[in-house]
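User: I would dearly like some help making sense of a protein record. I have put the entry right below:
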Amino acid sequence: MGKTVLDSKKMEWKGLDRISIIVHEELGHIWRETSKDDYGIDGEIEIVTPKPDGKGSETNGQFVKVQAKAGKRYVVQDSTNSFASPVEEKDLEYWHKCNVPVLYIVYHPDDDQLYFREVKEYIREAPNAFERPHKIVFDKSRHRFGKDSRPQITAHANSGAPRIAFDAKER
């Protein structure tokens, strides 16, 4: 008898695959899924910008990390305009302490859409973020992850600590 592949695993793959397609095709950035030892970060988005001469794009050393969730268990208090996604307090603390921005992205199966929030920004805007029950709240019109979210994703990447200093000279 073969091994069991749970429906929850298939849902997780669907969410990650959707992130990859949107990042590559709609946002025009680079998606790298974490392939080993995932402990709260599922991947990263590297920001790329079109080259001035129109011949391709170039990296600029800006990144956002991504924690992805998929499925109905990550969608509660669902309405036409909003929903919440339950999270653990220890996860909120971990993402908040990261030295780069962390996007929390949820695949909502009933809407067949991805939604995102940058965790540090969410905590600043939600004074009760660390009160029980812990959750991240999404506005379905403002937090949709797709082509229209490119400026927001880029702005979040600009807010992180620089990982590459292009102006630094070696001694």
In short: The two ends are 62 Å apart (CA to CA). Helices lie at 7-27, 89-97, 119-125, 150-159. The first strand starts at residue 30 and ends at 33.
